[in-house]
Amino acid sequence: MGEGGGVWDPFGTLRRVLWIGGGQWAGKTTVARLLAVRYGLAAYHYDYHDARGHDDRRVARRVRLGQSPEAPDPDAAWVNTTPREMAAETLAGFPVRFEWALDDLRALVSGRPIVSEGWGLRPELVAPIVESPRQMVVMVPTEAFRERQLRELPRTTGVGHGVSDPDRAQRNRLGRDRLVADDAVRSARRLGVRVIEVDGTRDAEAVADIVADHFRPYLPPLEEPGR
Q1: In angstroms, rounded to a whole number, what is the distance separating the alpha carbons of residues 132 and 120?
Q2: Are the C-beta atoms of 110 and 17 separated by less than 8 Å?
Q3: What's the pLDDT score for residue 67?
Q4: At what angle do helices 166-191 and 83-106 cross, to 10 degrees?
Q5: d(Cα 183, Cα 77) in Å, to the nearest integer?
C-alpha cells in the first residue's frame, strides 16, 4: 500500500485497531477519548500526529517530488484557490499520509485494542486491512452541528496561517471540509462501513455508546463497579 509498502505489522497491532473516520468537527476525538477511558484502550489521534509528527516526512516527500522543501505559500493554499481544488488536493494526499499513520501504529504494542480517529482515516484505505466493516465507523456532522461547533470550539475560529484574507480562507476551509466529509460518506456506504450522523441531539457520552455498541465484538468487557 502506497509508499509504506504492504501491511507489515510486527506486533500484530493493525489487526486490533478500531477506526473512527469521517468529517471535521463531528466529535471523533472526544468519542475516542471516552472509549479509551471506559475500556482501558490506547487512543491514536491521527490529526495530532499528522500536524505535528509528520513534518519531516512531508518535507522529504516534497524534495523527492522535486518541489521546494518549504511549505506552500499560505495565500496559495487557503485564499487563492477554491474549496473544490482544496478538497481534491486533500483527498489525493490522504493515501500517503495514511501510510505514515500506519507506521506510527505498527510501532505500538497494546494488550487491548487501539482506537484510532481522524479525518484522514478513509474507508477506502482502512477497508483493505480490516477483517470486518464493524472495525470502523464514519462520523460526520450535520450542517447545523458543524455551525454549532464553529461557534463553540475555540480551535475552529480561523485558519491562523497569516493569510491576507482570513474570512475568505475560512470560507474556503469550511467548503473543503464539507466536500471531504461528503466523499467519506459516499466511500463508506459503497464499502458497507457504518455512517453515524452527529446532529447535536445526543451528548458525547451517548454518541460514544453508539460507537461502542458497533465495536462490541472487539471491545473488552467493562469491569463491574467496585471490582
Answers
A1: 19
A2: no
A3: 74
A4: 60
A5: 21
Q: For residue range 164-177, list pLDDT tens digits in order.
A: 999 999 999 999 99
Q: Cβ contacts of residue 223 below 8 Å, gap of 6+?
A: none
CB neighbourhood size of 213 (10 A): 9
Is 101 within 8 Å of 116 (Cβ atoms)? yes
Rounded to 5 degrees, what are φ and ψ at 137?
-130, 155
Contacts of 218 (CB under 8 A, 6+ apart): 16, 18, 113, 134, 135
Cell numbers for 92, please give them: 489525493
Q: Kindly list the distances between the CA atom of residue 207 and the CA atoms of 27, 81, 177, in Å, as whole numbers in the listed order.
A: 9, 35, 21
pLDDT tens digits for 49-85? 888 878 777 776 777 777 776 777 899 999 999 999 9
Enumerate the β-bridge partners of residue 136: 19
Q: Is the dihedral of CA 117, 119, 73, 88 positive or negative?
A: positive
Q: At what angle do helices 204-214 and 28-39 cross, to 10 degrees?
A: 70
**What domains appear along the chain, each with residue ranges and CATH number?**
2-217 (3.40.50.300)
> How far apart, in whole angstroms, are the C-alpha atoms of residue 210 and residue 92?
31
- pTM, whole model, 2 decimals? 0.88
Confidence category of residue 227, pLDDT binned at 50, 70, 90: very low
pLDDT at 161 over 90: no
